[in-house]
């Protein structure tokens, strides 16, 4: 039989606007878990105060957005738990008699298993699959040690799987639209750059500079130099600006050349109409060139000479 631990303090842990709203933090509400199904809570209601529940009765969260756990950090957390115990309870939902599914606290659960704990303090809540996904994503987003790619993927899942618009997403996670957009843009980078960002081989500052390059090959070229030569963020930004300036200069040259070509083409059409014969006009950027008026008979030549009154 699980041991029930009552919380006397009304002070709440700051979870952020998004998660706080989802969890509907309020004074603990005790609900009889054995009451008829029609009387059971249907919203995110606390159905018990904090309880010690068996570790082996908890399933992992199928909606867990985090895909990479740092082994060293897990071992440090395990050492802390061994000395101090669990300071912040995990959160679960009950899916069957004596069976639970993790909502948040994956690292705490894993670390507890490493030190051999057989039970762990937990808040038990009701939540459907949609709420499970939102809570897991937002809870992870609000953690400082989540890497930029995991945050970006979590934002993407919240938008696609929870049908949230970018403005709504910003409200949920307590970030402005620009911040959300900066993370989402990282997912447009080539996979190898995303992996490097995930593994802390480059910083988000590096990635944000590289994403401003439109050409994928140039993105990869800058990335490889950044890693190989250990470029600073400022160095990457300078290189990106140089590429941008070169692209602008090239576009201006092409535009200028294109204008000249258009003028030559127009002149060629007018001459052809005037002489009633095929005319070829060629010119370079400096205005040097030639006009050719071929003829195939004495009659055509006489016609051309008559047109220019020679």
UniProtKB/TrEMBL annotation:
Keywords: Chromosome partition, DNA-binding. It comes from the Bacteria. GO terms for molecular function: DNA binding. GO terms for cellular component: chromosome. It holds the Pfam family ParB_C. InterPro entries: Chromosome_partition/occlusion, HTH_ParB/Spo0J, ParB/RepB/Spo0J, ParB/Sulfiredoxin_sf, ParB_dimer_C, ParB_N. Residues 51-141 form the ParB-like N-terminal domain. The keyword DNA-binding applies. The keyword Cell membrane does not apply. GO terms for biological process: chromosome segregation; positive regulation of sporulation resulting in formation of a cellular spore. PANTHER family: CHROMOSOME-PARTITIONING PROTEIN PARB-RELATED. Belongs to the ParB family. This is Chromosome partitioning protein, ParB family.
């Amino acid at each position: 039989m699980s041991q029930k631990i009552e919380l006397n303090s009304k002070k709440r842990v700051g979870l952020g606007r998004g998660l706080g709203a989802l969890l509907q933090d309020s004074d603990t509400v005790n609900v009889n878990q054995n009451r008829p199904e029609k009387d059971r809570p249907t919203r995110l209601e606390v159905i018990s105060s904090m309880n010690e529940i068996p570790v082996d009765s908890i399933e992992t969260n199928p909606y867990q957005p985090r895909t990479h756990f740092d082994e060293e950090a897990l071992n440090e957390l395990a050492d802390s738990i061994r000395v101090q115990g669990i300071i912040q309870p995990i959160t679960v939902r009950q899916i069957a008699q004596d069976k639970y599914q993790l909502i948040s606290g994956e690292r705490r659960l894993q670390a507890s298993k490493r030190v051999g704990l057989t039970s762990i303090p937990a808040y038990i809540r009701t939540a459907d699959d949609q709420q499970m996904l939102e809570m897991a994503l937002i809870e992870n987003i609000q953690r400082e040690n989540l890497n930029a790619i995991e945050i970006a993927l979590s934002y993407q899942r919240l938008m696609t799987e929870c049908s949230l618009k970018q403005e709504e997403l910003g409200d949920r996670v307590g970030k402005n639209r620009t911040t959300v957009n900066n993370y989402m843009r990282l997912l447009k980078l080539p996979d190898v750059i995303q992996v490097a960002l995930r593994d802390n081989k480059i910083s988000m500052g590096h990635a944000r500079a590289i994403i401003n390059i439109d050409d994928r090959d140039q993105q990869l070229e800058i990335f490889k130099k950044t890693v190989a030569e250990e470029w600073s963020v400022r160095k990457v930004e300078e290189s990106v600006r140089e590429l941008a300036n070169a692209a602008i200069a090239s576009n201006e040259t092409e535009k200028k050349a294109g204008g000249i070509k258009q003028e030559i083409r127009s002149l060629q059409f007018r001459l052809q109409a005037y002489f009633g014969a095929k005319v070829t006009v060629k010119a370079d950027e400096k205005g040097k060139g030639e006009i050719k008026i071929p003829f195939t008979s004495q009659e055509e030549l006489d016609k051309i000479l008559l047109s220019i009154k020679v």
